[in-house]
Specification:
single chain; 6-stranded parallel beta sheet; Rossmann fold; two-stranded antiparallel ribbon; 35% helix; 171 residues; alpha/beta
């Protein structure tokens, strides 16, 4: 295992707390709160030379609004948004869209998300490493198939940062 070059993130219940979303009449999120420590996580990754991509099934305006609200939009090098790509996770085209924009191979990328089937399964089908953000029980917590078994599980931003440091030492 080499140190990853790219960290892909889901948005809802990975970076932002879905229960805090304030939406307009078109269901686009205007603003939302972040999980404790996630802003620092994203800055840490960027400061350590990693590329960042958002791979999310969300409204196009939602990610722009939330990331700009928290001063995070400019940290991301690529966006693969379902309505813009034309499919939803776990379709491998969602993950491939981000990889293609940055010219990074799947084995050099990590998908970080909260949904075992959609985030873990879709990314692993391409050969990406996966990190499950197990913040809550909103989605099933038992993998529905072998592809959906995450490589790593974290329950806090602190655990995630510790894992990143361990991955850097291995690579």
């Amino acid at each position: 295992m080499t140190t990853p070059k790219l960290f892909c993130f889901d948005l809802g219940d990975t970076i932002m707390i879905e229960e805090t979303e304030v939406k307009d009449e078109e269901k686009t999120t205007l603003r939302a709160e972040l999980f404790p420590g996630m802003k620092e996580v994203l800055f840490h990754l960027k400061e350590n030379g990693f590329k960042l991509a958002l791979v999310a099934d969300t409204r196009p305006g939602t990610y722009v609004n939330v990331l700009k609200q928290h001063g995070l939009f400019e940290l991301f090098d690529a966006f693969a948004i379902s309505e813009e790509v034309g499919c939803e996770k776990p379709d491998p085209r969602m993950f491939q869209a981000a990889l293609n924009k940055l010219g990074i191979a799947p084995e050099d990328a990590v998908m970080c998300g909260n949904n075992l089937e959609r985030d873990m399964g879709g990314a692993k089908a391409l050969g990406m490493m996966t990190i499950w953000f197990y913040w809550n029980d909103r989605y099933p917590t038992t993998p529905p198939n072998e592809l959906a078994v995450p490589d790593y599980t974290v329950r806090s931003a602190e655990e995630f940062l510790q894992l990143v440091k361990e991955l850097q030492q291995v690579g």
